[in-house]
Write a structure and sequence with these properties.
This protein is α+β, with helices and mostly antiparallel strands. Helix content is about 45%, strand content about 15%. The radius of gyration is 30 Å and the shape is elongated.
């Protein structure tokens, strides 16, 4: 069975990433199984389609390694989240029709090959078998891929093109937020702890001399005799990482200095400062990529919110949701938990998806 690609929700970059959004699951037949639960302009979703997606999502949550309380919360929200995803998808697909977006068979062929590569499937027959394990035929999968490509094209035209950043935008943010790019003073240290006892002060003084002389053999001998603990590398520490007494004793030391014995948890601590890194402001070049990711994500989310607001204002929407999805218009599209994700297919947008704006179900 094919694993579900990363972030396979039909909103935004979500929709673009979703290779197998619909897993066909057996749904009990009922008289109203094909009734329309959602209409957006010329696009519709049926109760049958809703149940397919809902049950697939329930299965993923139940199979995932999640804390019980988180699993319960996700299951409680699954109906609204499922219909929310379908709603956003219909909004975008309707917009694709308005823009007369077309996807060629060659584009679909390439997308199918990318899907095979992302799942490390080598042959067509193995791919058909994997699809069959999810209840899909190759034709059904190609239809889903065509829809995903339509959504990606709309996103590119309506959202991605507006997410543009100049270097001056990044530098302006860097100048305005120096606290985000400042590294505090930190020390690289190692220590020996001498357990309490009548000779503790004497042994600690000896340890201090041995640390200063870097006499590893004598330090090991003291550890073997049980008079002192072994030499422990604490690595890099910042203010607040150590007990207050230890921090006060070492914080103004220079590289190569050894502290006086300090009473702290476990006995007398003797700490050597191996290296000092002064507080500094990171150079723009060191953080440029980080700033770009942050600003692109924020701008992408803002543009997505505006995009869905505009679609909602200008669309004819009729909703007759099942009871468990009644609040779908007020829900936000949630990122699936990491436990439900597999690596994303190639050539997908990196920006996180944004939720469509809130609203009440009904018609307009």
């Amino acid at each position: 069975m094919l694993p579900r690609p990363r972030r396979a929700s039909p909103s935004l970059a979500v929709c673009a990433r979703a290779l197998v959004t619909i897993l066909l699951v057996a749904v009990p037949l009922a008289a109203d199984v094909n009734r329309i639960v959602l209409r957006v302009n010329d696009q519709i979703a049926t109760l049958f389609e809703f149940e397919q997606r809902r049950q697939a999502r329930v299965g993923e949550i139940q199979r995932a390694d999640l804390p019980p309380d988180r699993r319960q919360r996700l299951l409680a929200e699954v109906g609204e989240q499922t219909l929310r995803e379908m709603y956003e998808e219909l909004l975008v697909l309707s917009r694709a029709n308005q823009l007369d977006v077309r996807v060629s068979d060659r584009d679909v062929d390439r997308a199918v090959e990318d899907a095979k590569a992302s799942f490390n499937i080598q042959s067509d027959e193995a791919f058909r078998q994997a699809l069959a394990g999810s209840g899909l035929t190759l034709d059904e999968f190609r239809q889903q891929m065509r829809k995903n490509l339509l959504i990606r094209e709309v996103m590119g035209r309506e959202v991605q093109q507006k997410v543009q950043l100049e270097e001056e935008d990044l530098r302006r943010y860097y100048r305005a937020h120096p606290e985000e790019f400042s590294e505090p003073r930190r020390l690289r240290v190692r220590e020996v702890v001498v357990p309490g006892g009548p000779r503790a002060a004497e042994v600690a003084a000896r340890v201090r001399d041995l640390l200063a002389a870097d006499d590893q053999d004598e330090l090991s001998a003291l550890a073997e005799s049980g008079e002192a603990g072994g030499l422990v590398q604490l690595g890099w520490v910042e203010q607040g990482d150590l007990e207050s007494a230890l921090e006060a004793a070492i914080w103004e030391l220079d590289a190569g200095d050894v502290s006086e014995p300090v009473a702290a948890r476990g006995g007398l601590h003797v700490v050597e400062v191996l290296e000092v890194q002064a507080a500094r402001l990171l150079e723009f070049g060191e953080v440029e990529e980080r700033i770009q990711r942050k600003l692109r994500a924020e701008r992408f989310q803002s543009e997505m919110s505006s995009f869905f607001e505009r679609l909602e204002r200008t669309s004819y929407i009729v909703a007759q949701p099942p009871p468990e999805a009644a609040g779908f218009r007020a829900a936000t599209t949630a990122q699936p938990p990491e436990e439900l994700m597999s690596p994303p297919p190639a050539e997908q947008p990196e920006e996180p998806p944004a939720a469509a704006p809130d609203g009440d179900s009904g018609s307009r």
